[in-house]
Amino acid sequence: GWLEAVTQQMGYHPQYLDSFLKTQHYLMHMDGPLPFDCRHYIAIMAAARHQCRYLVNLHVLQFLRAGGDPQWLRGLEFIPPKLRNLNEINKILAHRPWLITKEHIEKLLKISEWSWSLAELVHAVVLLAHCHALASFVFGCGCEQDEGLGGRGSLKPLSLGNQCFCEATAGNSYSQELLRINRKRSLDSCMELDSLRERMQQIHVETEGRDEMRLLQQDREEGEGQGAGYGGPTEHYCDPSAGLSPLADTDGVVTGATNLACYMQDPDFGYQDFARRDEDQTQVFRVQDYSWEDHGFSLVNRLYSDIGHLLDEKFRMVDGLQSSAMAKRQGCEPSVFKRGIWNYIHCMFGIRYDDYDYAEVNQLLERMLKVYIKTVTCYPEKTNSEMFDRFWKQFKHSEKVHVNLLILEARMQAELLYALQAITQYMI
């Protein structure tokens, strides 16, 4: 239930939800190259790039439950260099994935004692792309409306009469099994999580009551005494320029952050329109040369066992979702309409299909829909509930969620294509 707001929205499409839950569970909780606490910290780094407080708070809780060092939650200055070195590829993948090169890969794989293995890096790349894309879905469907712990969607809830959410997924074998497991886990851990939440809220209240000038003075003295601040005494740490304090306990150990900037470097780095040139097409990523089906799938599955099958199932599942009502309103076949949205998203990241007539995009997608898709895809933190309500007012909530699922998967595949191509070039 820790992704309740997300699963509630995805619940409009139970078959897709089943596939998503399998992938999410495998990435975060099953055997893999990366330690469990590192997985959640990488997720925090990824979500912070889009200022997605909902996902950051959830993964902070999961990070602590996995035995993560609370000191790491003070920011990137307090994590191992190996993890911190992931910051550059996180930044580029989140905003301009076409800038990823084999040199970025080589740098991570060849840094003496802080080097990554290929398997670890592939796991990390999939996690980054997964969380960047999930942040788009979170903002696109309104799950980021409440800044409290865990977040809470303020848009329309799942409407299924008197059915509870568990009953709504009846006949969905994996979801049912996961729900059974989660019920058992919740009996064992709900008190632990409730206690942790209460403690974090208490810490927040205590922190708010402190004298601001004293904290600022303390931060100045700490900065002068430590330089970069890595590995120093466990004093209260915050960024004075941000005007926000982390949640610190009485011993000064940070257990959660209200200031997401501590998980980022170069916060001004963001999306820029991909340069289109009529004469020089060297920057364009041609799917005919490197595709998920022919190249990416086999590489990722070889280096991180079975994840390729789960990702491929998810891509196919979103492609197979019924959208006849959406397509009918646009006067076209469902497959044509969905392909228009998918290719438009990939086009914004410089990915082109030689067999597609891009004039169809302007014919199929009205202006407000294109604005919405571009915002949710490229800078989701700028999305608000008004935008969600304004595009396609005549469409059902479930149809709007469907569009957000297409955005999630198209964006994730775009990031993976660039990253896996760079890894392939490095290997060659």
Automatic annotation (TrEMBL):
Annotated Gene Ontology cellular component terms: cytoplasm; nucleus
Location within or outside the cell: Cytoplasm
Record-level Gene Ontology MF annotations: L-leucine binding; oxidoreductase activity, acting on peroxide as acceptor
InterPro entries in the cross-refs: AhpD-like, Sestrin
GO biological process: cellular response to L-leucine; cellular response to leucine starvation; negative regulation of TORC1 signaling; positive regulation of macroautophagy; regulation of response to reactive oxygen species
Primary location: cytoplasm
PANTHER family: P53 REGULATED PA26 NUCLEAR PROTEIN SESTRIN, SESTRIN 3
Family: Belongs to the sestrin family.
Protein name, per record: SESN3 protein
Gene name of this polypeptide: Sesn3_1
